Amino acid sequence: MTLVFVNQSEGWPQLAREFPGALQVLFARSGTLRQYAAHSAPLTRVSFRAGDRINAHGRSLQVEEIEDRDGIFYYRCGTVTWSESELDDLQNVSKAEDRLVQGRVDRNDKFEFRVEALRRRADARRSRAFGIESARVDLIPHQLRVAEIVADRRPPRVLLADEVGLGKTIEAGLVIARQLATGRATRVLVLVPEPLVYQWFVEMLRRFNLAFSIFDEERVEAIEAAGDGRNPFKDEQLVITDSDFLVSSPERAKMAVLGEWDLLVVDEAHHLSWAPDSESSEYVLVEALAKRTPGVVLLTATPEQLGRSGHFARLRLLDPARYHDLEKFQQETALYAQRSKLAAKLADGVELEGEDRHQLHGLLGKERLQSATRDELLGELIDRHGTGRVMFRNRRTIVGGFPRRVPALETLPLPAEDAEMRGHLLAEFMSDVDEHGHALPLNYAKDLRLDWLVRLLEAHPRDKFLLICRTQAKVLALEEALRLKSGVGVARFHEGMSIVQRDRNAAFFQQADGARLLLCAEIGSEGRNFQFAQHLVLWDLPTDPDQLEQRIGRLDRIGQKGDVHLHFACFEDSAQAALYRWYDQALDALRSSPQDGRELYRRFGDELVEAARAFALGQTNAVEQLDDLIGRTQAAHEELALAIQEGRDRLLELATQRAASEQNLLRSMTASDLDRTQDDFVLKLFEQFGIENEELSERVVVLDPEYLNTEAFPGFGSGPRQATFDRHIALGRDDLLFLRVDHPMVQGALDLLLSAETGNATFLVDPELPLRSAYLDAVFVLECMAPPELHVDRFLPPLPVRVIIDSRLKEHGDYTASEEAVRRAGDLQLDPAKLRKVLSQLVPPMLKSATGVAERLARRETEAAMLEADAALDAEINRLTALAQINPGVKPQEIAAAQSERAELHELIPSSHLRLDAVRLVVSPDFLNLMK
Questions:
Q1: d(Cα 916, Cα 909) in Å, to the nearest integer?
Q2: What is the number of other CB atoms lying within 10 angstroms of the CB of residue 827?
Q3: What whole-number distance in Å separates Cα of residue 52 and Cα of residue 61?
Q4: Are 580 and 570 spatial neighbours (Cβ–Cβ below 8 Å)?
Q5: Hey, is 932 helix, strand or coil?
Q6: 422-655 has which CATH code?
Q7: In this model, does residue 305 exceed pLDDT 50?
Q8: Cβ-Cβ contacts under 8 Å for 162 (sequence gap 6 or more)
Q9: Which terminal residue of the chain, N or C, has fewer Cβ atoms less than 10 Å from its own Cβ?
Q10: Cβ–Cβ contacts within 10 Å for residue 651, how many?
Q11: CA 163, CA 300: separation in Å to the nearest integer?
């Protein structure tokens, strides 16, 4: 079966497979395989009638008869019969001319809106922010610039190593969304530790509108049971899975490796253990995936200074040809360390003397040393940095913008004779430590910590409080106890709730008159940020510093407007009191963000749990044992901090900073946010399908699908939706859609509109036209058929080309319908269907002339697109070629890919073709009498 897609720049798709509720189609010309929901696919079957002209095998013939053989159309054209699969997918399938000639026309406003939709679609796809304009992210320069650089790589193979809290997940999400939007990737695998699976799922869905599928053993078995023997990992395009699941099953790991991914994203990459003589199972798995996947993005917060071999191992995954010898890498690293010190002096304005000048002389030459400015010398050092192209590292102290942390401890008395309470507190602590332990019965109604919490809320009657505790059971117990003790508004947030329920509760918490206290479980709060609040209540403390940092990070983020107050209450001589001492005295983790928390937990985690347990039991020497642990942890922390500071790769940091100085993506997204005409366009687009809107507040609306006229419209399965066009509001309200033109719902609506006939033919009477005048307003679309990975849209998206020709075949490119004509268009009583004979004689020659003019305009557009492509790619090729002379990190394959891309665009852009999309016949009032 041959289908037609709204964006014919990829050619006609052919139905490849049918699944329950889904269709898989092949775009043969671009080599792309896509899957759509059966009820909402923007696809229409191509069919022709007797009298139509069709093209195949380089010939153009007229259809005389159509035959349906087992669901396949066959067209007889004289002595020749062609099946529908033989037809040329470049031919025009628009029925606009036929509809106009036959008098089957739409209202003028439908035509005008269709033309605007074509223009909006072209502008959106050309934008460098397409695919991420509607991302629910703040416009933070360092994140946007890293994403811009990485997403434009072909393919990206990088290590994102920002410090904790700087948004590596957001950077990765931006890269994924942009790669998918531009066609550089269609299949993405995200591999994460099991505790982060749900966090990634929520982040991708809520921030980037990407509906990933979580793959575990149950999901894979279900696919196998219902499938046809295919690899289950090929059943979905976007997949999140955990490394433990794959490592534990070699059979499933092999399936994943053979999944034919375009992009692999691995979080917590510092857990991948490697040594010259041994490799962990996790490392072997990722290495196998990385070898078969073009794009690889590794995320790690662990500084390279904590293990050169580990850093080498991660780089080896990205570029095994470049990083194949650990000893050689260590020698290069030592060399870069010397250059890093030079770079630091240049950046800090320190005068260079003696040995420093001698080193620069050897690197850059005497003439360059004497003629270049300090910034130019620094730039050339950065260009020579070996890992500067594959690794990005931003630091909190350089990025800035973080709030001050203000911890407040409340120690509560615990009577020595209350053995039952002591035992319960210790059991609760050990249950928290053992994730697979038995759940304890919890009742906080008589707990002194609850009284403290109520007093705290009463002391700050206007403030919002976020409370995070270990488990869902604690959330429910606290909610029940607070209902008896306090009238404060409370909302809950845990993994047992649906995403919709969590969204609603989070929105209720943010509202000025909503809940003042949000009770969160550890897992339920992952991936959610509440920067509008400044008070965090730690009902308990985790034993892992990273988990504590994640809790604090719900509030302590870039953009937080006030100090973050950390409230913690514990009973004296309890395990939690011991934990607080360790965090406070050994790591200073409540006032700062330690970079070595993961390493310290690895070294001292088990000992910490045992020391806290002994302290709670009052064992002999327990206090001394805890003091000794704190002392040793503090010493290790100072040692690691010094190693990190001394081993800082200033060249890498400066390279990342310099990359962030060019903010093209930031400018594009800022301009989009300020463009309020997008708001009106989106609402008008939805109105075309019967979706009504009502303004709730500035730039916040409710969208009501009660009168929706098609089941294919995406996103309204559960009834009315609320939406905003304001980024700031969207960041605080996860329950609102954040709509820009590139949002999947908007793009889906555009596909539905432009794949239908609506507005593609209309008739208008304009009293301001000269006497006896008729104008044909023809709108063509210029399309370049190219493989998606070329991302030709940045130079030549499907572009509307508008031509206006009068009945004397003269151009009137400056014509605009008069206000009176537009105003009275709805009052037109004429029945164009009665004018078929005249229209059939009038329209064809006008359209033929308009087509000739459009072809001339199209050549101008393709020439301009080629000039733009040449300018962009020549500059990139020259830059890469120059860098390759001084930086081994630039691979020949990268230069070859850019050159190949340029050559393909040179071939494909000039061969772009026009198709007629819409026509409007405009006549003067007196011309009507001539037509009768």
A1: 19
A2: 7
A3: 8
A4: yes
A5: coil
A6: 3.40.50.300
A7: no
A8: 142, 146, 168, 171, 301, 392, 393, 394, 395
A9: C
A10: 26
A11: 9
Q: Classify domain 141-324+387-394 by CATH architecture.
A: 3-Layer(aba) Sandwich (3.40)
- Number of other residues whose CB lies within 10 A of the CB of residue 802: 18
| Stretch (H or E) spanning 328 | helix 326-348
Q: Are 298 and 317 in contact (CB under 8 A)?
A: yes
Amino acid, res. 356: D
**DSSP letters for 9-21:** GG--EEEEEEETT
Per residue in 392-429, pLDDT (tens digit) is 888 777 777 778 999 999 999 987 667 888 888 999 99
Report cis status (omega within 30 of 0) of the bond before 13.
Answer: no
In whole angstroms, how far apart are CA 420 and each of 415, 423, 425, 426? Answer: 10, 5, 9, 10
CA distances from 94 to 85, 106, 758, 853 (A): 18, 15, 12, 19
Torsion angles phi and psi, residue 97, rounded to 5: -65, -45
Identify the CATH assignment for 675-755 out of 1.10.455.10, 3.40.50.300, 3.30.360.80, 2.40.30.20.
Answer: 3.30.360.80
Is residue 192 within 8 Å of 264, Cβ to Cβ? Answer: no
The residues that bridge with 240 in the sheet, in sequence order, are 190, 214
Task: Please measure the distance between the N-terminal and C-terminal CA atoms of the chain and give it in whole angstroms.
Answer: 43
The size of the chain, in residues, is: 932
User: Which two tokens mark 172?
Assistant: 């990765």
Q: Where in the chain is the domain with CATH 3.40.50.300?
A: 422-655
- C-alpha distances (whole Å) from 133 to each of 152, 172, 671, 674, 858 are 16, 15, 10, 12, 29
Q: Provide the CA 369 distance to its chain's centre, in angstroms.
A: 43
- 507 confidence band (pLDDT: 50, 70, 90): confident
Q: Residue 325 has what pLDDT?
A: 81
Spatial separation of the C-alpha atoms in residues 14 and 47, rounded to whole Å: 13
More confident residue, 757 or 384: 757
Range from 414-418, 532-536, 569-573, 834-838 carrying the lowest mean pLDDT? 414-418
